[in-house]
Batch of 2 targets.
Target 1
Amino acid sequence: MKTLPPGSTIGILGGGQLGRMLSVAAAQLGYRCHIYAPNANSVAAEVSAQFTCAQDDDIASLTRFAKSCDVITFEFENVPVEPLHQISSCAPLHPPIAALDIAQNRIAEKVFARDHDGTTAPFAEVSDRPALDRAIADIGAPAILKTIRMGYDGKGQSRIQPGDDLDSHWQAVAQQPCIAEGFVTFSHEFSVILVRGQDGEIRFWNTPHNVHEDGILAASTAPAPVAILDQQDTARALAARMAEAMNYVGVLTCEFFATKDGPIFNEMAPRVHNSGHWTIEGAITSQFENHIRAICGLPLGDAGLAAKKVEMHNLIGAQADNWETLLSDGTNHLHLYGKGISRPGRKMGHVTKLHF
Ligand code: AMP
């Protein structure tokens, strides 16, 4: 294990709020961050030492960036993989590229979970319109049609009810290769958030209970209710097996549905995750700090709860315009991502409250 001393440069692929919070955590430990992102208005670059604004497949810019870094990580799982192979000799990359390969493809991710003894919703690949008829005949409705690639926050998804006209659903996902998933009847949603160090040590944060609205995370609360805690060990064991199989380094998040038959794996994010934002104030060591510690080969920090109960609410769209009211409660920890104009469905910030 190679320890990168403070003062070293951490490269981050992606320039959104996750990169911003990673960069703040890195700065606190004395590191410099270099953001690489295609968008000039990168909210991560605003708080970082260096910024390269270039496309993800611009090999010359990527190589220059990689040579300026002592380690590289990413805050966005849809970074194209092929260019990363080309820069892999310039600086170590954590988490591994294999994790991106799996997480970028909803089918590969579910197969990977099943291969490690996880349970998923029934699913079928839908590569063309006739395959959609076959898939729904096979798995039934209700079902959800999701694009295999590039979907997030409920985007690229269409919910199918019994008797629906399937043409409109196929149009809704822009006729792209999809996965059709059986609709899971769940009591709760939760995520397992773990960090794995370069020596293989794994630490878990308290399991948050997640509530989604319109496919977007609205709130996370820890500790979770008993119905989730009863399923935590099985879910954690699966996430740990998957992390070990990938020789993973950094923070890994796996999302689950709690059902009467146990935890159903939904998806994994090979990065820090929105359902872990509460850890900034609500855990002894945040997901952002432990990700930096892991990729730099430092000892991992304690992931225990810092309060009796912690709740995090996302500020979506215009909800962030309410910042003055939120600040008038002095126990709120307000985070605004500096994105400027709010748009419906856009994650603008979050607010965390600790209960002692
Ligand atoms: P995803 O993009 O897969 O995280 O889906 C976003 C949200 O849609 C999830 O957090 C769930 O609330 C809901 N959802 C996704 N897939 C399913 C499913 N197969 N059954 C029931 N709800 C689902």
Target 2
Amino acid sequence: MNLAVIGSGYVGLVAAACFAETGNQVLCMDKDNEKIKKLKKGIIPIYEPGLHEIVERNFHQGRLQFTTNMKQTVEQSDVIFIAVGTPPDEDGSADLTHVLEVANSIGQLMNNPKIVVNKSTVPVGTASKVREAIQKETKFPVAVVSNPEFLKEGAAVEDFMYPDRVVIGTSDKQTAEVMQELYSPFVRTGNPIMIMDEISAELTKYAANSILATKISFMNEIANLCDRVGADVEKVRKGIGSDKRIGHSFIFPGVGYGGSCFPKDVKALISIGRKNHYDMRILKAVEAVNNDQKIYLLPKILKYYHNDLSGKTFTLWGLSFKPKTDDMREASSLEVISELKKHGAVVKAHDPVALSEARRLGLDSIIELYEDNYEAVRDSDGLILMTEWLEYREPNFQRLKSLLRKAVIFDGRNIYNPDKVRTLGFDYFAVGRP
Ligand code: NAD
């Protein structure tokens, strides 16, 4: 099929590459000229395991092309995916400016009937708005589909290639068949393609992210309670996770969730509730718990240093909001850095892949960034573990101890064994562990 994907970010680029991988002709479009220039040179603007190989292969084989030209994008394609950003507006609702701007351009440039697929995460009712925006501009028929994306950054290619399910929101039978054909190579093991109405498809995406965020905030509250009653949250976590009804995923306590999706989607669902005269009480609590959780270690750090951090130096291991990504949107590290700076501390940091993103965000003007995680801890008054990258899990503790000015670890992701690190001579603080 001739496809277009508009928006070449984490979702758009991965979708375009994976659709090309299954033999489609894909035009990947973005209004960001620099991004498209890089992609044409074979440079992938984001860090995503496995993406480089698949983009390179399909680009060289001529199935994947990059452009900033909207006219060419619309005219050459039968199915057009919209994968542009939907950032939170001031009131927390999803800002549809980019989505509707694209819909408007598609309408103006349509040269024959098209299927337009909305992959961006959008509030209920957006498919209708997109349809109206297109139909206002053209006489050609258009079918608008809601097809939310469930991939995770850090495993985006794998998630797209082997989805747990594909959700297609459309009430048109023929359109549903085209979408099923497009996705059938990805569900050969029998995972379902679910056809539903557009509104339910739109809501499914927010409900999925919100329940995952809820699990995290719930578990963080249990961890915070463990700290107060002397229980070990790691034991509690295993104890509840073994119950099949609960499961082990998304119950790892720590310093909160971040990223481009959970914070904004929780906010957006609260806003959808508000607009429909329903108070989303649980989600409001989920958000409040998470906002506090990001700096949960700070009182422990302050107490350790008798409320005086001025002139002290701290090293953060991990800047990205989670491992295997360079994405720092809403990362807990940013909050911790800001709090430490407010208290007069000097901050140093290491991250395996997010240093260039940190520089792009201007972080290098307020903290010191290190390519080597051991160099980053030299002469520091404490190590703060922010992101559970694999390479931080089994460090050389003797070396760490000899480099630190003060042998203390504040573990924001509970990755170390408290007994082991204490036996090695460290003071150790975690989240919900005695
Ligand atoms: P992103 O910011 O990485 O990429 C969006 C891209 O769209 C940018 O490159 C931007 O330049 C481009 N763009 C914006 N307006 C445009 C326009 N008018 N024409 C052409 N290009 C335009 O965003 P993302 O993380 O890929 O997210 C995209 C959507 O997918 C969001 O709604 C998000 O909530 C949703 N989503 C994201 C993830 C994720 O893990 N990142 C997962 C599932 C769903």
